[in-house]
């Protein structure tokens, strides 16, 4: 029994010594999910001292502190415990899922690596406030506010979002950096230039503040219901006063980094009324004028003239189609050239859009250009209005006369005559044969014989040249990869190309093609195809950021196209951009 007890003690001591001899090197994070306005602590711990410590690159984060090094030694029941830690403090740059990569260190001649850790960054969250913390003072003295001009607009009515940074008089701001930018998923958006803005005096919640306009954005809602405006989030370097004073009695300032967010805003978009909506209404909302003009009204045949259909005013000028001209068939009409002379201010779009037709008359005569009408929703009266053009007469003075319309009238008063048959009416039929004997020919030594005999020998040099070219082509790795990528792009976009010109069918086919490509390339299911997921996977595969951004933009175009008028030119551009982007992804992805 005593011997058994001694063996047990020996095994326990042996196991303890073996466990103590094992090297541990691991990474730990303070949390795996945090807001974009929070801070992350990363510790790299080891149980033995090492050399040549290499931290990861911390992609997606800014290092605001560290590396801080700490060492601890303890003895428990005669067993020494050693721990060495490298600590980093990180600030997220934007939302998304990021990897804390592998760190490496050399311990006793061996290289050890940590396991990567995934960290999810969400939108800004409310943080508890400590009155004794300088950050609390900054939070009371600095505010980012999103001011919305109209929270209950109509569909396609312009609203303006102005982002203002309010700062208390006793607080200073060194600089700021945007870390999360709103995406405006359900809006057509246009940023207004705010360069050269000056600091102004104002009030915030009844108190005196200074403020600066950081960003102005004009939005046109593209669907009805409650729409969310995502927050703008900034990282601001703030100088706040302390209780300490210098030798002259002035209060000393301390600098803190503060993350501020404008918060989410909800817009309730009203649908346009159904009562009184014209049948030809194409979505125009605003205050417009309409006219149809021609460059000339008198000309000769085969000369050309220009006809312009123009809408001018204030409203969603880029988001609707102009009415088409209906012209007589005797006038040759070319595809119109669309022109836009539109500027966007804080009040929305204003200017003009036009379709310019080139018309060439073929025959002499007078041809009317019928009156056409344009309908829009007037925001002032909250009712629909219709504008109509005047009829225009095109007088073709000189040219051939079109007799096609008179051809049907020439069939009257025709006198029927008796048909006389000729006696030799069947003379074309041969009644006598004229056979001649056929000479027998031999295949040997004919041209065909020599061609078949010598042809293979002549093909051999050609085959050698072809084979060498094929070998050269196979050795061209970059070229083959490019050609393969181009074939793959054409394969997936074949269905979308067939639907060019049909807006809804085209964008559905294009979106389906992009989904199928991603499923095949990234081996993921449709349920996993979120924009953030796609972006992170493509970047992990080594795809350049600009290419990923273009790919996500194509997805957004597919969504936006369901709510906005799209021209054939825009569809063609989206198709070409999709083909180019798929080709680039296939070449760059690992």
Shape: flat
Q: Helical amount among residues, as a percent range?
A: 10-25%
For the largest beta-sheet, the strand count, sense and barrel status come to: 7 strands, mixed
Number of domains: 4
Q: Which structural class do the helices and strands define?
A: alpha+beta
Number of helices: 9
Overall average residue pLDDT = 80
Low-confidence stretches at least 5 residues in length (pLDDT < 50)? 13-20, 405-422
End-to-end separation: 64 Å
Counted beta strands? 30
Instruction: Kindly estimate the percentage of residues that lie in beta strands according to DSSP.
Output: 35-45%
Alpha carbon gyration radius:
39 Å
Keywords: Membrane, Signal, Transmembrane, Transmembrane helix
Protein name: Protein BatD
Pfam families: BatD
Transmembrane segments: 448-466
Structure description:
By secondary structure, this protein is α+β, with helices and mostly antiparallel strands. The protein has four domains: 21-122, Immunoglobulin-like, CATH 2.60.40.10; 134-269; 289-396, Immunoglobulin-like, CATH 2.60.40; 477-588, Four Helix Bundle (Hemerythrin (Met), subunit A) (Up-down Bundle), CATH 1.20.120. Helices cover 25% and strands 38% of the residues. The chain has helices at 2-21, 134-141, 447-475, 477-492, 494-498, 503-522, 531-540, 545-560, 568-588, and strands at 25-29, 33-35, 40-46, 51-54, 61-76, 79-92, 96-100, 104-107, 110-113, 117-122, 142-148, 159-167, 172-180, 187-192, 200-204, 207-221, 225-229, 233-245, 251-261, 265-269, 285-294, 298-299, 305-315, 331-333, 337-345, 348-361, 365-369, 373-378, 383-388, 392-396. The strands form eight sheets. Strands 21, 23, 24, 25, 26, 28 and 29 form a seven-stranded mixed β-sheet that branches. Strands 11, 12, 14, 15 and 16 form a five-stranded antiparallel β-sheet that branches. α4 packs across α9 (568-588) and α8 runs antiparallel to α9. The radius of gyration is 39 Å and the shape is flat. The chain starts with a helix and ends with a helix.
């Amino acid at each position: 029994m005593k011997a058994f007890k001694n063996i047990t003690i020996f095994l326990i001591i042996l196991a303890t010594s073996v466990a103590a001899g094992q090297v541990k090197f691991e990474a730990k994070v303070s949390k795996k999910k945090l807001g974009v306005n929070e801070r992350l602590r990363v510790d790299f711990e080891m149980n033995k001292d090492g050399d040549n410590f290499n931290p990861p690159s911390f992609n997606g984060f800014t290092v605001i502190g560290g590396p801080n090094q700490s060492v601890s030694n303890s003895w428990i029941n005669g067993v020494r415990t050693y721990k060495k830690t490298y600590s980093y403090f990180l600030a997220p740059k934007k939302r998304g899922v990021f990897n804390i990569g592998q760190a490496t260190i050399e311990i006793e001649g061996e290289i050890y690596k940590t396991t990567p850790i995934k960290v999810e960054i969400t939108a800004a969250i409310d943080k508890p406030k400590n009155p004794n913390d300088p950050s609390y003072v900054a939070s009371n003295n600095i505010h980012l506010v999103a001011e919305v001009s109209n929270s209950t607009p109509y569909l396609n009515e312009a609203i303006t979002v102005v982002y203002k940074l309010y700062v208390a008089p006793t607080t200073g701001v060194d600089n700021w950096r945007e870390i999360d930018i709103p995406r405006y998923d359900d809006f057509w958006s246009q940023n207004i230039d705010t360069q050269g803005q000056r600091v102004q005096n104002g009030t915030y919640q009844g108190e005196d503040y200074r403020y600066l306009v950081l960003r102005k954005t004009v939005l046109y809602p593209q669907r009805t219901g409650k729409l969310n405006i995502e927050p703008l989030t900034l990282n601001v370097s703030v100088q706040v006063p302390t209780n300490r004073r210098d030798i002259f009695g002035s209060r000393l300032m301390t600098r803190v980094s503060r993350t501020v967010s404008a918060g989410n805003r909800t817009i309730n978009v009203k649908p346009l009324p159904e009562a009184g909506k014209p049948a030809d209404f194409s979505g125009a909302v605003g205050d417009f004028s309409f006219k149809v003009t021609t460059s000339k009204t008198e000309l000769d045949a085969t000369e050309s003239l220009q006809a312009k259909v123009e809408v001018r005013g204030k409203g969603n000028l880029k988001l609707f189609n102009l009415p088409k001209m209906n012209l007589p068939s005797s006038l040759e009409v070319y595809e119109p050239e669309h022109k836009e002379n539109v500027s966007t201010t804080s009040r929305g779009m204003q200017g003009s859009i036009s379709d310019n037709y080139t018309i060439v008359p073929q025959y002499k005569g007078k041809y009317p250009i019928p009156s056409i009408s344009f309908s829009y929703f007037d925001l002032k009266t909250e009712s629909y209005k219709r504008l109509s053009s005047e009829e225009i007469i095109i007088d073709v003075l000189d040219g051939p006369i079109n007799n096609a319309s008179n051809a049907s009238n020439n069939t009257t008063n025709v006198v029927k005559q008796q048909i006389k048959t000729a006696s030799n009416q069947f003379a074309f039929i041969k009644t006598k044969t004229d056979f001649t004997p056929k000479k027998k020919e031999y295949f040997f030594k004919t041209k065909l014989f020599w061609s078949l005999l010598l042809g293979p020998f002549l093909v051999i040099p050609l085959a050698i040249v072809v084979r060498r070219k094929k070998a050269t082509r196979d050795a061209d790795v970059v070229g083959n990869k490019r050609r393969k990528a181009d074939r793959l792009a054409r394969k997936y976009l074949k269905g979308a190309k067939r639907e060019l010109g049909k807006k809804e069918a085209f964008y559905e086919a294009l979106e389906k093609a992009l989904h199928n490509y991603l499923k095949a390339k990234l081996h993921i299911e449709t349920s996993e195809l979120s924009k953030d997921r796609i972006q992170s996977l493509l970047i992990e595969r080594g795809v350049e950021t600009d290419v990923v951004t273009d790919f996500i933009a194509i997805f957004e175009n597919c969504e936006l196209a369901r709510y906005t008028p799209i021209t054939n030119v825009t569809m063609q551009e989206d198709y070409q951009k999709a083909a180019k982007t798929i080709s680039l992804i296939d070449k760059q992805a690992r």
